[in-house]
Design brief:
alpha/beta
Length: about 160
């Protein structure tokens, strides 16, 4: 009954499943082992980044028990690409003038080059930088997980440094 599943989460005293850190690595391992992964509902978006894993979000131990007994099946988590959300931001077409800066953004995005914007306040540096993600193509799954791992590590390092 439990052979095809992995479970990841914190169980509270009232039977509620709580989120834990590092669920993306667990999802990677579960996907490679071709096993279902039951996680807390709050961890589902992160675990679903690993498309190869069958992620089943649950809110409580009762929901997990009902799923395992065949009464109420858990619904698989849907993959949501965070890079796709980034492309829904401001559009470069909204920028009037600034032809050289717009061209520099396009070249940097097309060739994966670095870009440095400098100048006095109010010249549009932030406005242009906010439009750069809309020029980039969606990230492949491997890049999404690598970026997420780095961002998680950075947050952990910052929390350790500040004592939180």
């Amino acid at each position: 009954m439990l052979d095809g599943f992995e479970f990841c989460g914190e169980l509270s005293l009232n039977g509620e499943l709580r989120a834990v850190r590092g669920v993306l690595a667990v999802a990677l391992a579960a996907g490679r082992a071709r096993r279902g992964l039951v996680v807390a509902t709050a961890n589902a978006p992160e675990a679903a980044l690993m498309r190869s894993a069958n992620v089943l979000p649950a809110g409580s131990l009762c929901a997990v028990a009902a799923h395992l007994n065949g009464h109420t099946p858990l619904q698989p988590a849907a993959f949501e690409n965070p890079a796709a959300a980034a492309t829904s931001g401001p559009d470069l077409a909204d920028v009037r003038g600034q032809l050289q800066a717009r061209r520099a953004l396009e070249v940097a995005a097309a060739g994966t080059h670095s870009l440095l914007l400098f100048g006095p306040p109010g010249t549009g540096k932030s406005m242009l930088a906010q439009r750069l993600p809309g020029l980039l193509p969606p990230m492949p799954e491997g890049d999404v997980t690598d970026r997420h791992n780095r961002a998680t590590d950075d947050r952990h390092i910052e929390a350790t440094r500040t004592g939180l």
